[in-house]
Amino acid sequence: MEAHRITATILHAAMKVHTALGPGLLETAYRACMRHELTKTGLQAQTECLLPIRYDGVTLDVGYRIDLLVENIVVVELKAVERILRIHEAQILSYLKLSKCPVGLLINFHVPRLRTGIKRFVNSAPAGMDIKRFPP
Q: Is residue 91 part of a domain?
């Protein structure tokens, strides 16, 4: 499935979760519900995926985790904060670079209307770069 269709499905699931739960819960609750919704649609959604960094020829596990990795293509970073800060945007851009995934979504559930809490990011890595596959 192409990235555009996957992101559309993710956004639909996020709207469904936000409509049912509203703002004010912890990120962990939204993450669990998102995984459930995405799994119902038939998409492979992994939570808390380890994201090692590669430095000086060595792979290091330094504790980075992707909130949701969907179909090994889309990185989804979930937030439940008053407002998205530049550091949150930098975080998802770093995750895209490290994972080599083509698309990322930053979704903040702590808003009255979810549409205002969604940002889409595209990995600016050169075309033809392999997408890193994470173990299930």
A: yes
Residue 128 is predicted with a pLDDT of 41
* Across 101-129, average pLDDT: 88
Task: HSE, CB side, 13 Å, CA atoms: give it for residue 64.
Answer: 20
For residue 73, tell me if it sits in a domain: yes
In angstroms, the CA 43 to CA 26 distance is: 24
**For residue range 55-94, what is the model confidence (pLDDT) as tens digits?**
899 999 888 999 999 999 999 999 999 999 999 999 999 9
Q: Which residues contact 18 (CB under 8 A, 6 or more apart)?
A: 109, 114
Q: Cβ distance 33 to 21 under 8 Å?
A: yes
Counting the structural domains of the chain, the total is 1
Residue type, 88: H
Half-sphere exposure of 107 (CA within 13 A, CB side): 28
Q: Read off the pTM.
A: 0.89
pLDDT digit string, tens, across residues 40-58: 999 999 999 999 988 899 9
Domain that holds residue 107: 3-122
Q: Is 113 helix (H, G, I), strand (E, B) or coil?
A: coil
Do the domain assignments include residue 85? yes
